[in-house]
From TrEMBL:
It comes from Lecanosticta acicola. InterPro entries: Cyt_P450, Cyt_P450_CS, Cyt_P450_E_grp-I, Cyt_P450_sf, Cytochrome_P450_monoxygenase. GO terms for molecular function: heme binding; iron ion binding; monooxygenase activity; oxidoreductase activity, acting on paired donors, with incorporation or reduction of molecular oxygen. Belongs to the cytochrome P450 family. Heme binds at residue 454. It comes from the Eukaryota. This is Cytochrome P450. Signal peptide: none annotated.
Amino acid sequence: MMDFLAHPLSLQTVYLLVSVAIAWSAAIVVYRLYFSPIANVPGPKLAAATGLVEIWYDLVLGGQYVFQIEKWHEQYGPIVRITPWQVHIRDPDFHDELYTMKQPRHRKLDYICHRFNTPSSLSDTPDSDLHDRRRAPVASLFSRQRVQQLLPSVQQKAHRVVDHIQRYCDEEGKVVRLDKAWAAYATDNVLWFTLAMSYNFVDAPGFLCSFTEATSNLIYSIHWLTHFPILMKVFNAIPPKTLTRLSEEIGAIFQFQEDVRGQVRRVVSGENEGHKAVAHRTVFHELSKEIGQAPGAMKEMEDNGVNTTLAGVETTTRSGSLTSFWILKKPEVHARLKAELEAAIPDPMDIPSFTELEKLPYLNAVIQEGLRLTYGVSGRIARWNPSISVRYRDYVLPPRTEFAMTPALQHRNPDIFPGPLEYIPERWLDNPVSPSGHPLSKYMVVFSRGPRMCLGMHLAQAELFIGIATIFRRLDVGLLETERDVVDMAADYFAPVPGNAKGGVRIRRKAGDEELGE
């Protein structure tokens, strides 16, 4: 080694190495552009030549790749090559072809399954067969029937949210962040359902919820963790308290995860006996009976605990906040919804069951349209198959090719949803169909489809119906200095992020009202 340092490379050797590197890079680019099995797929040449294009839009411009892909589809058509190794398809009628139960099933990309630090969780299990085995003991725990057991608690928390808003707005000068109220409500419901634990965030001053602050930090780091997987390994090697001293935001992420993992461990060990005092059978108490002795079971349950909390809180918070904003922003929507709720709910303190609320056509339409604009996931849902080709029209994507579709772009498709960026609940009335004659609901993928469909779908829907019905039956409030930039997607960080994410949905008692609610 010392001899090498004593004889540095000659200038000629440096030139040779640089020349070889340039020639090698040029050969890779030529192969990707002209000899790759997907070279015939249309798209921008620069994106086909290098993955740096994706990094530019993800990291430098900040979550803008989804919008660039949307523009490329307008230019090149329904199939576009967006990286040297990945093809993107925008065709609503092809969605089920990629994500349904067909065998052999497509795999999730292995190299993105570390991003949430939950590699053993259901959503981060790349292999389809292993995913099915892991999902089997969990699926029934999230069934509609199981969720029904929790609904009295959900309704109670919805009333507590409204009571809190009333108290807060009655104090002179107080303004409520309705998005924070939804976050507190969703977090309390998810933790109560899964672990029989309640932090009572719905009663916290200003609905302050530490968990949601941490999940927001994780979302903003998602592209860095995707493109530089080593970062997660580095972070995991540092104790959360030390991380917090280095960066409060990053430290909060890992402290949140450690808190959830600790709660799961206490449930499984029997230290937390809170489930004995509740009416419903909680998810992780039941899951520990099913897989508690299997190899790696504790890690699997911990990862599922973190992932369930992340997904359950984010989706309900975003959809509830967005729907509430548009109800208040559009007086005609607010008036029509309020009239329907007053007719169906004579006593505002006696909200009907979730099943009965689903039968209210305009409430249903209001929530469906909110879910459509929530998107669920704004990033690409990518898959690959090691053994079979995928055919799309005249294009054959050979085995090992990455292919993807994006829920946000499906929900923004003007051929299916005219005026796709506008909030129009009426589009869901009277059993609507698409131009091709299919029910419009076929194109809603906010909870995904097929064997990887969101487990928490029934809980999220119940929370939305009960929450919206309770808030808008009991309260008469208005927006305060709040515009659509607090809910419109301006960037993709796997979840949609609005341009004014810190502004929030601000509400106050309507001017001239003597009482806030009934």
